[in-house]
Amino acid sequence: MKFNKTFDRRTFLRGSTALAAVAPFAGLFGSTRAFAQDAANPFGVAEGSTVDAVIFNGGYGIDYVEFAASIMQKNHPSVTVKVSPSTQIAQELQPRFLGGNPPDLIDNSGAQAIGFSAILDQLEDMNAVLDAPSLEGVKIRDTLVGGVEKPGTFGDKFVALNYVMTVYGIWYSAQLFEDNGWTPPTTWAEAIELGKKAKEKGLYLFGWGKEAATYYRTTAVASAIKEGGDEVRLAVDNFTPGFWSHPAFQAVFTALYEIIQGGMMKPGGAGTQFTAAQAQWSNDQSFLLYPSGSWIENEMKPATKAGFRMTGMPELSVSDNGKLPKTALHATAGEPFIIPIGALNLAGGKELLRTMLSKEAATNFAKSKLAPTIVKDTVPADGFGSTALVSQSKLLADAGNDVFTWNSFDLYGTNQDELVVWNSFLDGKLDVAAFTAALQAITDAVYNDASVTKVVVK
Asked: pTM of this prediction?
C-alpha cells in the first residue's frame, strides 16, 4: 500500500528540538565521507563499508531496492548493502535520528512516514545526487523527467528525491465496463448516474478500507482543484483557514454524501482491512470504481480477477466548466527517498540512490512493479503487457501541461487524525456540515500552531 505519506506531527515534533540539537554533531558519530572519488565512485564510498537502507514495505515492496543493491555490490565488491523493510518509518527511525545513527537511505513513505516539517534541517540536499554521473556516464539530472525536484522541495530545501512517477486517478475494470456497455464517468453527476445503474445489477459504485479512507481525501482535493484552479490548490497547500468550505469542496462532499446516502458506497469499509476491501473491487468486483495511485495494480496483483484489464481515468470533475479541463491530472513523483545529514555512511546512501537511478534498475522497477520511475525511456509502448501502465501513459499524454499536485498533508502530518473523520463520513455517520467542521478543526490546528514550521506556497 502506498498510504498518504504522513505521520502525526504531534508525536514526532516532540523530538524535533532534540533532533536539531543532535544535527551539528552528526559528523562525530563515525560518518564515512571522504574517500577516492572518480566517475565510478563520485561520492567516495569507502572500501569495506556497509550501507544501511530502510525502505517502506508497501505497495512496491523492497525488492526493487535489493535489485539496485545487488548492482551496487557488483560495482563495489567490498561494500555490503543492507536493505531493511519497515511499515512504521517514524516510530522505528525516530530513536535512530535522536541517537545520531540514522540509516544512510530512507524511503519516507507510508501512513507512518515522518512529517517533513519535523526534519527538514536533518536532511541532505539532493542536488549533489542529481548532478552526479549516472552509471551510464550521463549527468543523472539529464536522464530524469522534468520537475522531479518540486515534490521533494519544501520552501527552498530540496531534500527528498521521489523515485516513482505516480499517477493518481480512479481505477476500474475495462472488461466489466465493456461487458455492461458503461462509459467511464468524467463528472460526479455522471458517476452518480452510473451508480444507479450498478445498483440495478446488485453492485456498488465505490468502496473503501479503514486504513485507506483518506484515499477519498486525495480524490476530493483533486476534484476541487480541477473545479477551482490555483485558488483552491494554494489554499490547500497553505492550509488557509476555511478552505474546506470552498464551494468546490462543498460540491464534491455533497456528491459523495449523495452516493453514501443513496446506498452506492459499499458498507462496512471502516471495519475492513484495506487490501481486503481492495480485493472486493479487483477480485470480487462488488464495486466499480476505486480512487488510488498507480501502485494499485502491483499491490493487488495476487488478488485481481483474470481478464480484469485494470485501467485508470482522471479524477472526477465537479462541472463541465471547471478551471482545469476534465483531462487535467493529479500526478507527481512519489516514494520520497531521503538521506540524513547524520548518516554514518553518507556516501554509501548517495551511491545506492545513484544506482537506483540507473537505466537497468529503473527498467527493472517499471517491469516488475508496473509503474514508471522518474528515469526517462524505461517503459515500452505495450507497458510490459499492463493495461494500467498503458493507461497511465495515455493519461499523462492527454493531460499535457495540466498536471498538478500538493504537499501540505504530507508536510504537516495530518493523515492519522483525518482517517477517523473520513471513516466516519464514508460510513454515513457524519453529514456534510459536521464532516467539513471536523476536517477544518484538524487543519486549522496546524495553521494556528506556532511551533509548527510553515512552508508558504505561492
From this structure: 0.78
